Amino acid sequence: MTTEGHAKAPDKGFAKRVLRRVYSSFGSVRVGDLIPVDPDGFWRSRSSPARSLKAAAKLFDRLKGETIVEIGSGLHGRMSGNSIMVWARRTRARIIIAIDLDPERIGQVRRAASRYPHVKAVVGDGIEFLEQFTGGIDLLYLDFWTPDPDGAVPGTGRAEAYRSVYRAAKDKMTPHSIILIDDTDHVPPWKHTLMIPDARRDGFVVLYTGRQTLLRR
C-alpha cells in the first residue's frame, strides 16, 4: 500500500453523505431509560453484531479503505458475527490481517478464509504486532480477551488492554480510518471505557454505540 493514497485531507461533505447512508441503514431505534444487565455485566437483551459489521464494511468501502487489522479473531458463531468472513466477503480490502494468541482460533480463520488470498492470519500478540506494523490501517477491529489483575474490578484488564492497543495503533491509522469495538453493551469498566475518550481526544467521532461501537476519524 502506498502512502500517497492517504495523503489528502478528508472531504467533509463526502463524510457527511457517508454518515447519512450509514445512519439510514440502521433505521430508528428507541429504548427505555432502564436497560437490564445480567450477572456478567452485559445487557440482558443482546443482539447479533451482524448489522454493525455490515455497516462498518460498507463505510470502509465508501471511504476507499485498503487495509483491515483485526485484533482477536476466530469463528465464534452467529452471535459473534464471524467478522473475518464479513470483511473477506463484503469489502474490497486489499489486505485483511487477523491476529490472535490462540493457534486454534487462527487455524479456524485460515481454513474458513482459504479462498481469500488477501486474508492473512497471524498467531501473535496484538500490541506487539501493531508496534512493528509499518503500513496504514483503514479499519481496526477489536475483539480480544484479556484477564483482570488480581483483586481488580471485573473488566479492568480489558479496559487497560484496549487502551494499550489503541495507543499502539493510533499513529498507524489513516486520515479516513475507522475503529470498531465489539461487546460494548457492558457495564464499565470494559473494552471501550478508557480507549474511547483517548480516541475522541485524538479526533475520532463516535458514530454509534450499543452491541458494538464505531468511531470514525
How would you explain this protein's 3D organization?
- The model is unreliable at 1-8 (pLDDT under 50).
- This protein has a domain at 65-177: Rossmann fold, CATH 3.40.50.
- It has helices at residues 12-26, 50-62, 83-90, 103-112, 126-132, 156-169, 195-201, and strands at 67-71, 95-100, 119-123, 137-142, 173-182, 205-208, 212-216.
- It is globular, with a radius of gyration of 17 Å.
- The two termini are 20 Å apart.
- It is an alpha/beta fold.
- It has seven helices and seven strands; from the N terminus they run H-H-E-H-E-H-E-H-E-H-E-H-E-E.
The CATH topology name of the domain at 65-177 reads Rossmann fold
Residue windows where pLDDT falls under 50 for at least 5 positions: 1-8
Strand order of the largest sheet: 3-2-1-4-5-7-6
Tell me what portion of residues adopts beta-strand conformation. 15-25%
The CA-CA distance between the termini, in Å, is 20 Å
Q: What is the number of helical segments per DSSP (H or I, 4+ residues)?
A: 7
Radius of gyration: 17 Å
Morphology: globular
**Structural class by SSE content:** alpha/beta
Q: What is the level 1 CATH name of the domain at 65-177? A: Alpha Beta
The helix content is 25-40%
From the coordinates shown, what is the CATH architecture of the domain at 65-177? 3-Layer(aba) Sandwich
Order of SSEs = HHEHEHEHEHEHEE
Number of strands: 7
Overall pLDDT confidence: 90
CATH homologous group name of the domain at 65-177: Vaccinia Virus protein VP39
The major sheet is characterized as: 7 strands, mixed
